[in-house]
Write a structure and sequence with these properties.
Layout (H helix, E strand, L loop, with lengths): L9 H27 L6 H6 L2 H28 L5
Helix pairs in contact: 1-3
Length: about 80
């Protein structure tokens, strides 16, 4: 277990990675019958392949949220405190 505390955007990045992997597996499963000469999968399988792009966007949103949080923390620590 890590000693780091979870930061803003971490959950989005992890969720995006899982969604991306599901889409990647679906893409492999969808393309395999084309090379093996088998019957193509139903159209629903092709729509599941689009999860790769959705997962990438979710992860990118998490990274941007993390960057915004880090910038906010850096500004707060560098600004003089009003006493």
């Amino acid at each position: 277990m890590s000693n780091e505390t979870p930061r803003a955007g971490d959950l989005l990045v992890r969720t995006g990675a899982v969604v991306f992997l599901v889409g990647a597996v679906a893409t492999l499963a969808t393309v395999a019958p084309l090379f093996l000469g088998a019957e193509p999968l139903p159209p629903v399988a092709y729509f599941v392949c689009m999860l790769m792009g959705a997962g990438f966007l979710i992860s990118a949103a998490g990274v941007l949220r993390s960057v915004a949080d880090q910038r906010r923390r850096a500004r707060a620590s560098s600004s003089p405190s009003a006493s």
